[in-house]
Each structure stands twice: as C-alpha cells, then as structure tokens.
Amino acid sequence: MTTHSSSQTCSAVVGLQWGDEGKGKAVDILAAQHDAVVRYNGGANAGHSVVVKGERFSLHLIPSGILYPGKLAVIGNGVVVDPWKLVEEVEGLKKRGVDTSGLVCSDRAHAVLPYHKTEDALREDLLKRNAAALAVDERGVSEIGTTRRGIGPAYADKAQRACAIRMGDLLRPEVLREKLDVAVAMKGPALTGLARTLGVNAEELNRDALIQQCTEVGQKLAPLIKETTHLLHAQLGAGKKILFEGANGSLLDVDHGTYPYVTGSTCISSGIGPGTGVPTTRVGRILGIMKAYSTRVGGGPFPTELKDAIGDGIRNRGREFGTTTGRPRRVGWLDLVAVKYAAMINGATGLCLTMLDVLAGVEEIKVCTAYRINGAETTQFPPDAYDLQRVTPVYTTLKGFAQDITKARRLADLPAEARRYIDFIEQSVGVKADMVGVGPDREQTLTS
Ligand code: IMP
Q1: How far, in Å, is the centroid of ligand 1 from the Cα of 1?
Q2: pTM of the full structure
C-alpha cells in the first residue's frame, strides 16, 4: 500500500468488475475504522449483502455502514434515490432492530419517480423487440438488461434539468407542483407514444396523484433529507474519517465501462467528488474489490464467460443470483485485462480478493491475461462493447486447489496453489492484496 498525506483521511471501496464483487463486506469491515460511510453513485439498482453473526442483510440504497451503531451513513448527492424504496429499507432495518438514526440523505440527490421505472422498462422492451427483429448481437442495439429501477431515466433527467426532482424538492410543495406539471407534460406523451409503438397499455400520468404521493413520501423522509456537502466537510474539519462506498462496478461506469452496457453513473473513485462534494484528493486509500472469477448480470460482452458445467458449479457454490433482481448471474474466468484496467482508472492502492473459496475443487483455473483482436494480442481494455465483443481471451492456466478453505484465518493457512493464484493476480495487476475473502462472514477475511 502507498503512504498518504495527513489530509487524506478518507478511504474508498470500489468494484473492479461488473458489480457484485462483494463490496458490502469490505465496507462493513472498513466501517469499523471510519466515522462516516457515504454512497456517491447509483441507486436501488445496487445490492449489497452483508452477513453479520450469521444474519444476512441486503441493502440497496442505504450505505452498508448503517450496520455499525453510531456511524453517520450518508446517501450522497450523486445517488438517484427511489424515495419509496428508501422508506421500505429504513422500515425493514428498524424492524430487525438496526439503529438508523445516523442515516442522512442529500437534498441534492435526485429522486427516481414511478415514471422513470416505466420509461426504463418500455425502453428495454423496445430495444429487445428491435434486436429480435434485426437479429443483431450485442453491438449496441440490443436490450441493456437494466434492473428496471429507473436509474438511467433519472440520471438522464438530471442532465436534462427541466423536470428533474431532487430530494429537497419533496419538502417544497409549490416547487414539486410546478416540476410535476412539466414532468407530466413532457413524459406523458413520450411514454404513451412508446407504449403504443410496443402495442401495450401505459397508464396516463396523473399529476394530482403524483403530487400527493411525492408529498406523502417527502413527509416520511423529511427527518433524513439534509444538506450533506457542508456536513461532510464539517466531519473532515473535526478530523473524522470518511469511507466512500462505490456502487455497481467500474466496468459498468457510464464513461469508462463497456458502453452502452453500463449503468447511468460514475462508479469509479473519481465519482466521489461530484457525487459528494468532497474532493477526491482527500481519499488516501482506494480498495479495489474483485472476485476470484468474473460475473456479469444483464447484457453486454463478456469475453471469459463460461457456459458449461464449470460455470454452473461456480454459480451454485458462489450463490451467484442477483441481490436486486434475483437473476442468475453470468459467470466466467477471471479477466485480468479488465481488472488491471479498472485498478488503473480507479487509482487502486490495494486489492480485496473475494470468493476465493468458491474456486475450491476446480482442477485447473484459467486466467485471461491478454486479448486477441484482429490477429494481434493486446493487454489494453477496449473502449466499448463493439470492440470487446470481438476479442478472444488469451489464457494462462494455473493449478487449482481441492481443499475447503472457508476455515482459513491467515494467508499462511491457504494451500500453496491458492497462494500462487493470489501472487499471480498481484503481479499481473501491479497492486497488493490487502484482504482475501474465503466466505461470507466478517471473520472469513484474511488480511496481509
Ligand atoms: P441499470 O443500472 O439498472 O440501468 O442497469 C444497467 C446495467 O448495469 C445492467 O446490466 C445491470 O444488470 C447492471 N447493474 C446495475 N447495478 C448493478 C449492480 O449493483 N451489480 C451488478 N450489475 C448491476
């Protein structure tokens, strides 16, 4: 790990693949050493699972740090918040006895409204229909495979501005009324038009009902909705330590991922600045989370994908089914071209390798170390899905390990082949592994 200056009291946890890398557990462990945990991107598309004393918690909007009593848990301005889901999540945690008094949501965060979800679903259906009609592959026109949580449309509205609603607006009835007027005028005809094209029914947008729903949910969330930029700087001024929790994954980043098969936000560490108001220069430690293999949910190219019994075995042992949508995840060999690229664009100072135990019993483990494209070999990650679709992975084969490693508590407890696998990853990526996960529980994490 690199050394940091005294003003760099913040850390970040980011995913180095296509999401679901096990960030929740890393955040949960690091939260113990920080005073505040802050989300800066994404929305209820994310699903973080944390197991505490055998009890599994699945969080979508609320930072995983909430499971530590007394910590400040902030939903930053860069997050798009489904207010009804937030209420549901808070109430669910309260029911299980979790103290949610440290939770704050930025008034600058944008709200995801029901029509964003309708738009997300209709657009996906249109892409799917077109792809089927044209018999196209994943070169840019087929279904993205979104979570249909309205994420893309909410970020699009944020950039488009005319009718975007921020969480702070939920507390101002007169602003809400004006904005919803514009939203209904703009979105209504677009949605019914799209529905007509698809031959399905779409309910007309009802301005009064929307105003009422938004006002009601705003009242419920009022105690949480606050200005957070000054709040976070006050924390920093008081010498407090902040942990930033990246959602989704670097290869789903709207600019740097496998476009257009990406999400709508900046998932990489540089999203912290715009997504919270804290300059990224305050972040000294950037922990890149990566699984010992690859997974992907939704559409888009996946060069190392396994569509065989080895892949099925990994999916079942790793419980690779979406936390948010329940969809089976696509599974493949570890792609070090992709991970090295992700570590580079994040400025990762350390790695956290997760799910190593899942590979137990795989006789020979393949690792992609280069791509072959147009007859030439490259270690550069291509700029978009069109190019990535056309690469052939170049593999190095490593000997696997047969033993169950879930009881290992030190790196020295691991079989030699597992340690060799970790060394190979560290050397290829050029970043040291600070943590290695051998099971879902907090205790099943080996540190170097
Ligand atoms: P959206 O974020 O719902 O628009 O979905 C865009 C793409 O990102 C789809 O392929 C989703 O499956 C994927 N995605 C979004 N969030 C996550 C996540 O937290 N883990 C894994 N995949 C995700």
Answers
A1: 30
A2: 0.95
